[in-house]
Amino acid sequence: MSDIHGYHAHVYFDQTSLDSAIKVCRAAGKEFELTVGHFHEQPVGPHPCWSCQLSFAPQQFDEVMAWLALNRQGLTVFIHPNTGDHYKDHTDHAIWMGEVKSLNLSVLKASG
User: Please, which pLDDT band fits residue 29 given cuts at 50, 70 and 90?
Assistant: First the structure.
């Protein structure tokens, strides 16, 4: 557990589900002490969809994951730990809620 410095949950959305994503992410920000990132209306980094990143501490994992499972409103959520190995964090250590998407891993190979 000491290798995990935090978690990112990337809430994926598109033009038709933007309002749902805003509601989910803002509600998560009110429910938990976590950081709600920008609503990217284009793919960013390895993420193939529009997304918003929720950043939270390892101690919050159980509660945040349970909340997302019940409140994601049908949106795909990609969750990964932050261990410093970006490639493994986005592949071997990844967790999906909803539809599994293909990531653009080429952007991680250089930094991983």
Answer: very high
Range of the domain at 40: 7-109
What total number of domains does the chain contain?
1
Label the pairing between strands 7-13 and 77-81.
antiparallel
Q: What is the value of pTM for the model shown? A: 0.94
CA distances in angstroms from 60 to 28, 30, 32, 101, listed in the order given? 12, 14, 8, 25
Question: 36 has which bridge partners?
Answer: 54
In a domain, 26, yes or no: yes
CA 23 from chain center: how many Å? 15
CA distances from 77 to 1, 15, 28, 64, 111 (A): 22, 16, 13, 12, 23
Asked if residue 99 lies in contact with residue 49, where contact means CB atoms within 8 angstroms, the answer is no
Task: Please tell me what DSSP assigns to residue 110.
Answer: T
